Backbone:
């Protein structure tokens, strides 16, 4: 009877890519927030004060949630792969 492949031994199951892209997207969003606050004029309760500040705000509000979702999915897959590698011989 053939053995089923272990998830941890699969060379390309997408876990590494999810973690890399999620981390880079969260990093980009945080960089945009830092640039908005320090260099691009800041923000008030009405929004950013410059056009480039608005662009940075939009990029940050897009990258941070989606990047966190990718990171959560990648961490869940990594955790599953570790659990499966301990269970299956």
Residues:
């Amino acid at each position: 009877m053939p053995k089923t492949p272990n998830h941890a031994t699969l060379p390309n199951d997408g876990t590494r890519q999810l973690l890399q892209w999620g981390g880079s997207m969260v990093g980009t969003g945080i960089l945009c927030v830092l640039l908005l606050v320090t260099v691009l004029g800041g923000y008030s309760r009405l929004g950013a004060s410059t056009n480039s500040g608005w662009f940075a705000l939009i990029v940050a509000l897009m990258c941070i949630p989606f990047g966190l979702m990718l990171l959560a999915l990648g961490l869940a897959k990594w955790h599953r792969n570790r659990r499966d590698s301990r269970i299956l011989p």
In short: DSSP finds two helices and two strands in the chain. Residues 16-83 form one domain.
